[in-house]
Specification:
There is one protein chain. The relative contact order is 0.18. It is elongated and about 60 Å long. Helix 3 runs antiparallel to helix 5. By secondary structure, the protein is mainly α. It has one domain. It has five helices and no strands.
């Protein structure tokens, strides 16, 4: 393993942990957070860079433990699945409340509109927080 790959692995675990912990705090407090999304996107970029760099090492003929490879690639799959669930969050919340669609939300009283939007954002934060924390576990497992 190269020192660059080690640094990217540590950065993946740390950035995902920071995003996950901040996301958990925001989810618990039911507070939207632009910072959470920036932290999350940064951690996802680090995950992708680490996987790409690992792929280059693999292409250059470096030996790699099969589990390291698996645990190095799984965070990308987890993020992809999480993004699909995040996209579905609005529809899930609207269906649970019996609201026909986004246009119908605009017809609700302002307080109820805010409640619906906060529910959607909270669900999105919860899903992506879980993904970030899973990435931490997978990154630690890839390490050892």
């Amino acid at each position: 393993m190269t020192s660059v790959h080690v640094v990217l692995g540590v950065a993946m675990v740390v950035s995902s942990a920071v995003a996950g912990l901040w996301g958990a705090w925001c989810w618990y407090r039911v507070e939207p957070s632009e910072l959470f999304w920036k932290l999350l996107r940064f951690s996802q970029a680090v995950i992708l860079l680490g996987a790409l760099q690992g792929g280059v090492l693999l292409a250059l003929g470096r030996d790699v433990d099969g589990l390291h490879l698996l645990y190095g690639v799984l965070p990308i799959a987890v993020s992809f699945i999480g993004e699909q669930l995040r996209i579905a969050a609005a529809e899930t919340v609207l269906e649970a409340r019996g609201i026909e669609g986004a246009a119908a939300v605009g017809e609700l009283p302002e307080a109820e509109q805010r409640s619906v939007v906060l529910s959607i954002v909270r669900r999105e934060i919860g899903v992506m927080t879980a993904c970030a924390l899973v990435a931490v576990v997978l990154g630690l497992r890839a390490w050892g």
